[in-house]
Specification:
about 45% strand; 6-stranded antiparallel β-sheet; about 150 residues; 5-stranded antiparallel β-sheet; globular; mainly beta
C-alpha cells in the first residue's frame, strides 16, 4: 500500500520522473495511492482516447486549458478550462481533442485499481489493437467502433 504524504508536487515533477506517451498524449503521474491516482495530461490537437469503460473506477477530468469533446454514455458533451468532467464506473466514455489546439487537464481515478500498471505497459505502444488487448487485462474495456 502506498501512503499519501503531505507536500507539494511541483509543476515540472512527476512520480519517479515518469512521463508516459499514451496514444499520442503525454501523461505525467502526480499522485498514487490505493485510493486514488492522478496525472497531468497533454492532448495535442487531433488526439483522443476511444470510447471505453472503467469497470472498477470513477474517473474525473479537470480541464486546465483548451477544449475536450467527450462522449458520455453515447451523448456528446464539451468541456473547457475550469470545467470538471465526471465519468462514473461502467459508463462508456471517449475523450477527444478536436479543437485544433493543445488541451491540458488533470485526470484522476478512484480507486487506483490497475491503471498504473496499464499505463506502464502501454507506454509507447503504437499498435491500437495491442493497446486494446492489454487494457482488457487491466479493468479497462475499449468498445468496438460505432
Amino acid at each position: 500500500m502506498t501512503i499519501l504524504t503531505a507536500g507539494v508536487t511541483k509543476a515540472d515533477e512527476s512520480i519517479d520522473d515518469i512521463v508516459w506517451n499514451i496514444l499520442g498524449q503525454t501523461y505525467v503521474p502526480k499522485t498514487r495511492t490505493d485510493e486514488s491516482f492522478s496525472w497531468h495530461a497533454t492532448f495535442p490537437a487531433g488526439t483522443f482516447v476511444p470510447p471505453h469503460i472503467h469497470t472498477t473506477q470513477d474517473e474525473f477530468i479537470y480541464v486546465l486549458e483548451g477544449r475536450y469533446d467527450v462522449v458520455l454514455d453515447g451523448q456528446p458533451a464539451a468541456a473547457t478550462a475550469g470545467d470538471l468532467i465526471r465519468l462514473p464506473r461502467n459508463v462508456p466514455h471517449g475523450i477527444f481533442n478536436k479543437s485544433g489546439q493543445t488541451a491540458k487537464a488533470l485526470f484522476w481515478v478512484s480507486p487506483t485499481g490497475r491503471l498504473w500498471e496499464l499505463f506502464t505497459q502501454i507506454h509507447n505502444v503504437a499498435d491500437p489493437e495491442e493497446v486494446v488487448r492489454i487494457a482488457a487485462r487491466h479493468e479497462v474495456n475499449f468498445l468496438p467502433p460505432a
